[in-house]
Amino acid sequence: LALRGATGSHKDFTFVSSVVKYLLFFFNFIFWVISLVMVAVGVYARTVKHAEATLASLSVDPAVMLMVVGVLMFLITFCGCVGSLRENICLLQTFCISLVVIFIIQLAAGILGFIFSNKARQKVTEVINDAVVHYRDDVDLQNLIDFGQEEFGCCGAATYLDWSNNIYFDCNQSNPSRERCSVPFSCCIRFLSVQSVVNTMCGQGMQEREFGEAGKKIHTNGCIDVLVDFIHSNMFILGGIALGLAIPELVGMFLSQLLINQIKDQIELQQYNLKHSSDPWS
């Protein structure tokens, strides 16, 4: 009887920890739900716009970026969820490798951005200039630019004159737009303590004025310089945010690799039991 009890307990033994298994599942399930929300918001934002307008600004459309990130996150976390529940080594390895690749890309992007800061600055300038060109084509993009200019107190990419790159604000004399030589309202300096009613036309004709004169009513500095100064002044905070984003990836890699090793040990145990099942002395 003692021998039978020992044999039974040996067969019931498993290397796979239920704590690790379901912890990894719930970890992935949370981000899986987040990815679904991101995709849904991105799809909704795209469908409520006019196709002709959104196609013109596809490269800078926040809705497209949201959908791409959401789909990638969905696929990766799906592998993690199903792989942990089904104890599937292939899916778990796909999940772990994907996290490793993303982590390496983030790390490499940070290092390259620091080393090649001039090229990174040039690329960001191109993105902002492209956004300025398509400012009126996309409501989401317009709101994003307005929010950035208001929060950082800036106007345009390098200077407020960059708004001439937009067909509505172009300062060319042949431009029939009522906003010719103007800048968006988000470029204006707010004097809320003096004005009870905000003048939404404060950016009218500002590109025709000299730098010093325009600086009395609008922010004349470009967003690139302001953004660089903000990054330099908040290096520790941004480093903490980057670390906070990396911690879930590291946790996912650790849990998935731990579960993979446990599953492999369990497979070896099952193969050993199967091999010695006919042994009368087992």
Structure at a glance:
It is built from ten helices and no strands. The chain has 282 residues and is mainly α.
Walk me through the structure.
With 282 residues, this protein is mostly helical. It has ten helices and no strands. 24% of the residues are buried.
Strand portion: under 5%
Unreliable sequence segments: 1-9, 51-58
Our measurement of the CA-to-CA distance between the termini, rounded to an integer number of angstroms, reads 14 Å
Give the overall shape, derived from the CA principal axes: elongated
Q: Give the oligomeric state of the chains in this entry, treating copies of one chain as homo and distinct chains as hetero.
A: single chain
- Helices, by number, come to 10
Helical percentage: 55-70%
What integer value in Å does the Rg equal? 28 Å
Number of strand segments: 0
Structural class, by secondary structure, is: mainly alpha
Give the biggest sheet: none
Helix-strand pattern: HHHHHHHHHH
